[in-house]
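User: I'll paste a sequence; please echo it back and then give the predicted structure.

Assistant: Echoing your sequence first, then the prediction.
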Amino acid sequence: MLRHLVRFVATTTLAMFACAVAADSIPLPPPGSCNVVKTEADYVGKSGTGYSYDISKYGGDGCEVMLDIQAELFTGPKADPLFGWEVGGSYSYNHQVRLESPLPPGVAMPAKVPILFAIRIDGSISGGSGYFFNLQSTVNGVGYGHELPVDAPFEYSNAFTSLVTPNTSFAAFVKGYIALGVNGRGAHAYAQLIVDPFIVVDPSYAYASYFGVYQQKAGVWRELNRDWLPPPVPEPENWAMLLSGLWLISKAIGRSRRPPV
């Protein structure tokens, strides 16, 4: 009886804790062991008009990709009063959904498995005019586009479902753009766009835990992971939940050790 109670309390507490942590937003990571490709450029014309950009692509080696695009645009005192410019970064890799452990007895291999393509976009901008953020993405032949004209920091997230054939490759393509404009001599604008896509087997699928998503790079297939994520730090309410679970366990153990009357 005690063993079952302890197992139930511990499992319930940890499961609730895991769900609460999973709902937290994903921070811009240090690269960890994920592959990082950086592209940088600077240009200044004779008139003093110039731009610079820094694009970092995380992943491509089993770590799901994230794009970090930073752009700066400025005009010198002799420049044309109106100047516009666009910069973007992209990635494209093949993916597969694979069966990782035997399905329960009597359950046949499905012809299709539902995947969830989740995406988060963070953007910020200062100065300038006539700007927008644009995202183009294609997963398993289905295209998704987002154009976000903004003039302040923002967060955007969405998720889409699709059906894929197990052990069959499908492409995932994501491209993020920043369009900047400055109006006036000596004007300046800066913007940053973080594109964070992630592909998982749809958690609502009854047999999701039996499958994994793999990514191909240089002919090698690796299971996707996010090893850049730091260990989760529980929120206060999660700590309370965890401690209450431990208290129930200790109380049950204390009762079991109490000598008979």
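The two ends are 20 Å apart (CA to CA). The helical segments are 2-22, 236-257.
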